[in-house]
Amino acid sequence: MFKEIDWDLLVFFSALFVVTGSLEANGVSQQIFSLMRLGPETSLLAFSTITVVLSNLVSNVPAVLLLRPVIPTLSDPHAGWLALAAASTLAGNLTLLGSVANLIVAEIARKRGVEMSFWEYTKAGALITILSLAGGVVWIAAFIWK
User: Fold this and answer.
1) Which of 60, 86, 135, 141 has the CB geometry, 3.0–4.6 Å to 92, for a possible disulfide?
2) What angle do CA 128, 133, 139 make, to 5 degrees?
3) Closest C-alpha among 88, 101, 90, 93 to residue 122
4) Whether 91 contacts 132, CB under 8 Å
5) How far is it, in rounded angstroms, from Cα 70 to Cα 96?
6) Any idea what DSSP says for residue 51?
7) Considering the entire predicted model, what is its pTM?
8) Taking the CA of residue 70 as centre, how many other CA atoms within 13 Å lie in the half-sphere pointing to its CB?
9) pLDDT digits over 17-48, tens only?
10) By residue range, what is the domain housing residue 130?
11) In 3-state terms, what secondary structure has residue 124?
12) Distance separating alpha carbons of residues 29 and 76, to the nearest angstrom
């Protein structure tokens, strides 16, 4: 059973949480978010863009953990949670690093002889992400965000 575990991916995924936890514990993420002036004046588009970028730097689940303290500072925290959920989930489609699920699929494909480059994935992922995120942001802006 242990032979079937993808240890590289498991260590990588665990390390994402160690790194993001360290950023939060040392106040680095808070300083960055303060410099970005995230707060009550933050627009839905700006918050969604930040979420997409961060989700593709550290993967979507760790990005949510990093952005969690920002939500209470937004003008409507309920809408902020919905925007964070939508943007981080849909951002996971942009690059291979956007979601660990992408890495798992790419790794399984590689083992079966299908090579998928970062840029090859991103070409398809960009279109999917832009279209789905635009729809999600428009819906949240129209019905929820204040």
Assistant:
1) 60
2) 135
3) 93
4) no
5) 26
6) H
7) 0.86
8) 30
9) 899 899 999 999 889 898 889 999 999 999 99
10) 2-143
11) helix
12) 21
